[in-house]
Amino acid sequence: MSKVTALEEAVAKIPDGATLMIGGFMGVGSPHRLIDELVRQGRKDLTIIANDTARPGVDIGKLIRAGAVKRLVASHIGLNPETQKQMIDGQIEVELVPQGTLAERIRAGGAGLGGVLTATGVGTTVAEGKQTIEVKGKTFLVEEPLRADFALIAAWRADYYGNLSYELTARNFNPVMALAADTVIAEAGEIVPVGLIPPDQVETVSVIVDHLVARSH
């Protein structure tokens, strides 16, 4: 059965205050139309889990500029001064997470694990308030898994069942985020008949994709 959903209908399922994982790395591999529609529909008080907030007015940066974000969990915000200003002004709560730790926390959320042990951040401000554990004489932080209400991901190609494949580095956080959310909305560059994506090129399987949106009108 086809999972193709109209853009407006798919985004309308996301309420104010929802927690969203959004794929991409500085906008590469981000679901551009879904982000634009969130802004157009005036969504607010969102918690965003993403690698970054891109640049001012670009991709996730559009949500920042629109004042749609209440809390952000990200690896860096250094290239978006608007995010920095809103954080300093207290408009956004920001949790900065080392990139590898962020990826592993999301993976743990998708795999049903209770957490991640990492040496990254031990002895720094990252460790404040967090549990530590010693393994064979080495200290590790216990980092909790991350999950979201919705994952908004971008794929290079999809079939009508919702099987997805990605293109080169645009893959980035998308597949792991698709496993760590209650509802997955995928934006695909092209949607093809079932069977045109070779089975060994399916990187996200249809059973975890709830809604499919075309990247272009």
Secondary structure layout:
Elements: H1 7-12, E1 19-22, H2 32-40, E2 46-49, H3 60-65, E3 69-74, H4 81-88, E4 93-96, H5 99-111, E5 116-118, E6 132-135, E7 138-143, E8 148-159, E9 164-165, H6 174-178, E10 181-192, E11 211-214
Parallel strand pairs: 1-2, 1-8, 2-3, 3-4, 8-10, 10-11
Antiparallel strand pairs: 5-7, 6-7, 8-9
Q: How is this structure best described in words?
A:
This protein is an alpha/beta fold. 22% of the residues lie in helices and 28% in strands. The chain has 6 helices and 11 strands. Strands 1, 2, 3, 4, 8, 9, 10 and 11 form an 8-stranded mixed sheet that branches. A 3-stranded antiparallel sheet has the order 5-7-6. α4 links the parallel β3 (69-74) and β4 (93-96). The protein is globular, with a radius of gyration of 17 Å. It starts with 6 loop residues before the first helix and ends with a strand. The model has no long low-confidence stretch (mean pLDDT 95). Belongs to the 3-oxoacid CoA-transferase subunit A family. It holds the Pfam family CoA_trans. InterPro entries: 3-oxoacid_CoA-transf_A (IPR012792), CoA_trans_fam_I (IPR004165), CoA_transf_BS (IPR004163), NagB/RpiA_transferase-like (IPR037171). GO terms for molecular function: transferase activity. It comes from Rhodoplanes azumiensis.
In short:
The chain is α/β, with parallel strands linked by helices and 217 residues long. The protein has helices at 7-12, 32-40, 60-65, 81-88, 99-111, 174-178, and strands at residues 19-22, 46-49, 69-74, 93-96, 116-118, 132-135, 138-143, 148-159, 164-165, 181-192, 211-214.
